Amino acid sequence: MSNNTVRRERDSLGARDVPKNAYYGIQTLRAVENFPVSGIMARPEFINAYAMVKKAAALANLEIGWLEPYVAEAIVSACDEIAAGKLHDQFVVDDFQAGAGTSFNMNVNEVIANRALELVGKRKGDYSTIHPNDHVNMSQSTNDTYPTAMRLCVLIIAQDLLDNLELLRRAFTRKGMEYQKILKSGRTHLMDALPVTLGQEFMAYSVAIKKSRDQLKGALKLLEEMPMGATAVGTGANTHPDYQRMVVKHLRSITNLNLIESEDPREALQSRLCVSSVSSAMRNLALELIRISNDLRLMNSGPTTGLAEIKLPETQPGSSIMPGKVNPVMVECMDMISFQIVGNDVAVAMAVQAGQFELNVMNPVMVHNLLESMVLLNNYLPVFVEKCISGIEANEDKCKSYLEKNPSLATFLQPHIGYEKAALVAKEAMKRHMSIRDLVLEKGIMTKAEVDSIFDWEYLSGEQKVDKRHK
Fold first, then answer.
1. Which of 230, 258, 460, 469 is the most buried (most CB within 10 A)?
2. What H or E segment, with its residue span, contains residue 356?
3. Catalytic residue among 185, 271, 319, 461
4. Does residue 212 have an active-site annotation?
């Protein structure tokens, strides 16, 4: 390269030419060369969270008196710019990188240092004034900054996810209320079973989402303990006695999150229980979303040879060869997203158990997968609610038709005529393709008033708890 397009930088391994206009430096350059893995770089949310961590550290070191005011102010200004979305193209380290995230931490340190140098009127690479390690990384290690940024990022993104899950829960609740009186055949083992209402099924989906959301919200509390101040092995080496308290105080102010100091800094570096707990909650949520989506696919199946109890909104043509075919694409997409979340959790689980002694170095793969899971749902849930759940239509005639032919309705005869006789009625009804109701009336087993009482929708659905055994 021409001397006009590069600047010379040195580290402990030697000297290298870095692009002159780059805000990153020599250590970032080495990482780019060492890890040309996926082409996937840090998400903007993680970059922003890391800038918040560096800002809090600079403010704490300024308050302590370890950083000169003009240096601290330049670092804080650079961090504010990055957190506002600037210079994100300078974070060029692959998500799959050196253990612990050292490469990315140095990428952050170098970008902040070089932007801070510009702000004080110095040229990039003039580290005698503001140094990536000595100033930007003061009182820090990758081992405490990276997991702190992980926690902050997940907590911040999770706020939107909790809101989006509440949006989904309410959508299911509205459908539950809308269809509360539409009786249909229940199914167990994929076979005809006792009646439920379509509304009851949707209300159950609403409760499942609520429980999954509550579990996720509870797991997120574990992330509020901040590892900052632990430095390399949890002993707080090279920090002021008041630094941990001060840096967490500044993080609380910057993020408006309820952050606390770690109960034990050693545990904060060794364990990733907090991460696995959130990832597990995401997996459990995904399993519920898969189950519910597959129910909706089955109820929508048809229109002539499936169940066709509901109709999902038509959002696009379904076939390149079959004219007029429309597929349940929105729930299919939800399934695929959920499968990915389950797979991501496996990767997180393997990383969480891979820590040894004073550190778990597998942080980058944890945050990559956990953030992907959360971002996928944040991107899709509002669309899913709008274009799928809110537009579901019930096929009441089809539900009624299936229910009338359901032999399991003979169950409600059992208290009146006994199990054996009820079973014979069920078999004859199936053989003759008759409804239980009509067969009971034809045979004079019960009066019309008794039949009407038993086959009332409130009684069949369990909404009416009156004992009708001897009435």
1. 230
2. none
3. 319
4. no
